[in-house]
Write a structure and sequence with these properties.
Layout: E1 6-10, H1 14-26, E2 30-34, H2 37-47, E3 51-55, H3 63-73, E4 79-83, H4 88-96, E5 101-104, H5 109-128, H6 150-162, E6 169-172, H7 179-189, E7 197-201, H8 207-215, E8 216-217, E9 229-230, H9 232-236, E10 240-244, H10 251-263, E11 265-267, E12 274-276, E13 280-285, H11 289-294, H12 300-306, E14 309-312, H13 323-338, E15 344-345, H14 347-354, H15 361-374, E16 380-381, H16 383-400, H17 408-422, H18 427-434, H19 438-448
Parallel strand pairs: 1-2, 1-3, 3-4, 4-5, 6-13, 6-14, 7-10, 10-13, 15-16
Antiparallel strand pairs: 8-9, 11-12
Helix pairs in contact: 2-3, 13-15, 14-16, 15-16, 17-18, 18-19
């Protein structure tokens, strides 16, 4: 470590201060020490060290008061609290106020070394890591589609064209790829954006509930119908009704939906009056409906009615060039929603994210970033945190597929295969993704019996 780095030790025990000074000097770090809270605050204000090691019990003030003073001077300050007293409430309060770590005395050298190394690394990266957020996240951005690849630019054009009319739209794409978001953007971009947007989750509709939910019912239409209820179609008015996961709608209910689509009229359950709907119909599915028609699981005539305009949503693995922009957007959104303040990431994070196939697409990416951000200490997102989450995802996905990757070798083989897929077999690019040299990667390919397509 650079000798330019400074660590301030605030502890009233001279033996502890001397031991920590020796420990830090051996790490190549310049150590300052003070014996009281007031002296420590003065030293922090004057020298602005990269790290403070702070005792909870001080002779003049509480270490928590000193922590608050340090954080008031620099909200990004890294402070490791140390104490001989095991107190749940104090530990929680210290971490809540922004402490980087909390270590009990007698100090474990390995635990202290990890905490000091990681905190100094965080402090350094906070000033050198790539900036991922340049402005505040706006609540209005919640319904924003992020992307700049050719496929996404084409999708934006299609949305623009669709928003000029009221044609029925079928959105097809994998789970988590953003189908409902696209439906909302179509609605909000249309002339009827001041009208309701109503969602129908087709995976939850069963039997008689379908007609009641969609068409509504009159009072006394069935047991429990104590009052008249307007259905989703009536509630949508001249707005948009979105049928989510239309491919999972049971066959008997498909015929009832088809009749409505043919004439755009319906009757409440138990009623006699014919009502008309002017709502735009948008449906979405993660299934290949043509295959489901062939398998007898979906009505062909219903597919014809829905398939007026089709939007195919590309999976995330086919638009990895959007990762940087997506990470920037989600970090801002997560900070806004969770009260966190992660504004920078290590370069390796983007390479790591780019090495994964993302079966859960955009939703899975946001979940990974959310977990990593909530576990971050400070303003920097490190590759180590993201890597551990993604290794867990790999284990889970492999367990679901019936394969065993319990050993490190099997996990490494899986990571190499995904890196090669992400780089289209380019050895140099795959090596960068995996953060290893090309010769090392070639040895691993030979070891695991994987094909080197560059030969």
């Amino acid at each position: 470590m650079s000798v330019l780095k400074q660590v301030l030790v605030i502890d009233d025990e001279s033996a502890i201060r001397e031991s920590l000074e020796m420990f830090l000097q051996e790490k190549g770090v310049r150590a300052l020490s003070r014996g009281t809270g007031s002296e420590g605050l003065e030293a922090f204000s004057a020298y602005r060290p990269q790290l403070v090691i702070l005792d909870i019990r001080l002779p003049d003030v509480s270490g928590l008061d000193v922590l608050r003073g340090i954080m008031d001077l620099d909200a990004e300050a890294k402070v490791i609290m140390i104490t001989a007293y095991h107190d749940m409430e104090t530990t929680i309060e210290a971490m809540r106020q922004g402490a980087y770590d909390y270590i009990h005395k007698p100090l474990d050298v390995d635990e202290l070394d990890r905490a000091v190394t990681n905190s100094l690394r965080t402090a350094e990266t906070a000033h050198t890591g790539p900036v991922m957020i340049t402005g505040e996240y706006e609540a209005s951005s919640r319904h924003k589609i992020v992307g700049n690849t050719a496929s996404m630019r084409a999708l934006f054009k299609t949305i623009g064209l669709v928003s000029r009319n009221r044609a029925t739209v079928l959105i097809q794409g994998e789970t988590g790829s953003g189908k409902e978001l696209i439906a909302r953007v179509i609605h909000e971009s249309s002339a009827s954006n001041d009208q309701p947007y109503v969602t129908v989750d087709c995976t939850t509709l069963v039997g008689g509930l379908f007609e009641s939910e969609l068409f509504g019912h009159e009072r006394g239409a069935f047991t429990g119908a104590g009052c008249m209820k307007r259905g989703r179609l009536e509630l949508a008015g001249e707005g948009t009704i979105f049928f989510d996961e239309i491919g999972d709608l049971p066959l008997p209910l498909q015929s009832k939906l088809l009749r409505f689509l043919e004439y755009r009229e319906f009757t409440r359950v138990g009623g006699a009056k014919t009502l008309h709907s002017k709502a735009r119909i948008i449906a979405a599915t993660n299934h290949n409906l043509t295959d489901r028609v062939s398998n007898g699981q979906f009505r062909q005539d219903l597919l014809f009615r829905l398939n007026v305009i089709t939007i195919a949503v590309p999976p995330l693995r086919e638009r990895l060039d959007d990762l940087n922009q997506l990470v920037r957007f989600f970090l801002a959104q997560i900070n806004h929603e969770m009260g966190t303040n992660v504004t920078r990431v290590e370069e390796k994070v983007l390479s790591l994210l780019g090495s994964y196939s993302w079966p859960g697409n955009i939703r899975e990416l946001k979940n990974v970033l959310t977990k990593a951000v909530l576990g971050a200490r400070g303003s920097v997102l490190f590759a180590d945190a993201v890597k551990s989450i993604m290794e867990e995802l790999l284990r889970h996905s492999t367990e679901k597929s019936g394969n065993d990757i319990s050993s490190p070798q099997q996990l490494e083989k899986r990571n190499i295969k995904q890196a090669l897929e992400a780089s289209n077999g380019n050895i140099s690019a795959a090596a960068r993704i995996l953060s290893i040299s090309r010769p090392t990667l070639r040895k691993r390919l030979k070891l695991y019996g994987l094909r080197d397509r560059s030969d």
